Description:
This protein is α+β, with helices and mostly antiparallel strands and about 170 residues long. The protein is built from six helices and nine strands. The chain has helices at about 5-10, 20, 25-35, 40-50, 65-70, 110-115, and strands at about 5, 75, 80-85, 90-95, 100-105, 120-125, 125-130, 135-140, 150-160. Helix 3 crosses helix 4 (about 40-50).
Amino acid sequence: MDKFKRSTNTVKGYSTSQLAKSEKNDCFVRALAAATNVDYDLTHTYVKEVFDRKDGKGVVFNGDTLTKIQDNGIELGDDMFAFQVLNSNRITNEYKLHGELVSRMKTVKSFIKDNPTGTYVLGVSKHAFTVKDGVLIDNIDEEFRPTRKVTSAFKIDKMSQNAPVEQLKLF
């Protein structure tokens, strides 16, 4: 894969965080920190509170929690982020096989190809990572696994603090 960055080098404050040094199974914390460009410790606290993450344990995506976050956004420090859960048609490919229409989960490679811009947190089997403007931000050696199946995807956008709400324009 051409475009890859190590999450440990990309996440703000990761290399100096005592908390990060004592953690494991913190891939969603690192993914969210990389996606939002917010400090690891602050993101860790947010994920612990909002997702009820236990130290050393991974995050389970709860439908109620995701709906609440999608409705209210993510507040990390002084920044607000829109959080959109992508529906299944954004993470599946459809094609014909022997005359039948078949749906299959997108691979990481096909997701990046279909979404070359924007910031996403992707879930694959028991793991999460960031894709930012076509660049995969993950653990070392994960760039060699582009055929992992995407099981969930969340689009993250920074919201402007003083931006007025855009009105619908008809003409």
